[in-house]
Write a structure and sequence with these properties.
The chain contains eleven helices and ten strands. It has 291 residues and is an alpha/beta fold. The chain has a six-stranded mixed β-sheet with strand order 2-3-4-1-5-6, with helices on both faces. The protein has a four-stranded antiparallel β-sheet with strand order 8-9-7-10. Strand 3, helix 6 and strand 4 form a beta-alpha-beta unit.
């Protein structure tokens, strides 16, 4: 993926979600930030590039891929190897494992770990140096509902202590309970940079719930008026990009009986689809409301 002028700043103590479809450039962005891939831009962590940091793990905790480890090592042994390579004391291993909900006892070998346990171990490795900045690629991938809830609580606790977190995610429902700000990538370009609150209203006035005794006619009317059908469940349409008054008047003119019409807040996944539709149409603002 080739990125095109992706530029943003993250204030301290914020959780910023990097969103985008598969192939949008999320992982490429994170790798370029950490100088793992070659690129023409630069990223500064507390005023320095990643490779200029004397002890990177003490400044930036990184979780990019599911952990790769010698399968016969325990979690403690795996983190001990990482700590030694990063110049970190072994005293940080137990707190890191405890924070992600992994046992500090001998426990199973890493080769017997589930995907969720590997994700937890990878996050523990990122926390070893007690960094003030975290860069996390899909940290909730492979976690069960309890694991996702634990992750959310941990990240919110870390930001409460002043930690700054950039995470990529496709789990928008989980992200909505975490993120302060949203970055939306599409086609290698940063299309939207805004607060979560404003992101959820990108569907031009929120979302309408509407039902008619003639669903086919209703769908055609929504399309003609420029609305976006976000979902259809048992004949009930959820629509962005239209005002209730506009839809009601148009339906009346066409003698279309509307049996249900309510304004509703957009769900995170709906805001995501509406924002992508706006970027396709060229109507989304590149930067809006972020600080």
């Amino acid at each position: 993926m080739i990125l095109d002028d992706v530029s943003f700043a993250i204030p301290p103590g914020r959780i910023v979600a990097l969103l985008g479809q598969n192939g949008a450039g999320k992982t490429t962005t994170l790798r370029l930030m950490l100088s793992l891939d070659n690129g023409s831009g630069k990223t500064l962590f507390n005023g320095k590039r990643y490779q200029e940091l004397r002890y990177p793990a003490r400044t930036v905790g990184v979780m990019l891929d599911t952990v790769y480890a010698y399968p016969k090592h325990t979690a403690c042994r795996h983190l001990a190897v990482i700590a030694a390579g990063a110049g970190l004391p072994t005293e940080t291993i137990a707190p890191a494992l405890d924070s992600v909900g992994l046992s500090t006892s001998r426990g199973p070998r890493v080769g017997d770990f589930s995907l969720g346990m590997r994700q937890r171990l990878s996050l523990a490795a990122a926390l070893l140096g007690e960094p003030r900045i975290l860069v996390l690629d899909e940290p909730g991938n492979g976690l069960d509902p309890f694991g996702r809830e634990h992750l959310s609580g941990l990240l919110l606790e870390l930001t409460g202590r002043g930690c700054t977190i950039l995470l990529s995610s496709h789990d928008l429902d989980t992200t909505a309970g975490l993120a302060d700000d949203i970055l939306l990538l599409d086609g290698g370009k940063l299309r939207v940079q805004t607060t979560l609150k404003e992101f959820l209203t990108l569907g031009a006035g929120g979302v309408l719930r509407v039902r008619s005794d003639d669903p086919a006619h209703l769908a055609q009317l929504i399309e003609r008026l420029g609305g976006v059908v976000l979902s259809v469940t048992r004949g009930r349409y959820r629509v962005s990009g239209l005002r209730a008054e506009t839809l009601a008047r148009s339906a009346q003119r066409e003698k279309l009986l509307v049996t249900e019409l309510f304004e509703d807040e957009a769900r995170p996944d709906e805001a995501f689809r509406a924002a992508l539709k706006q970027t396709t149409d060229g109507t989304a603002s590149t930067v809006s409301g972020a600080s």
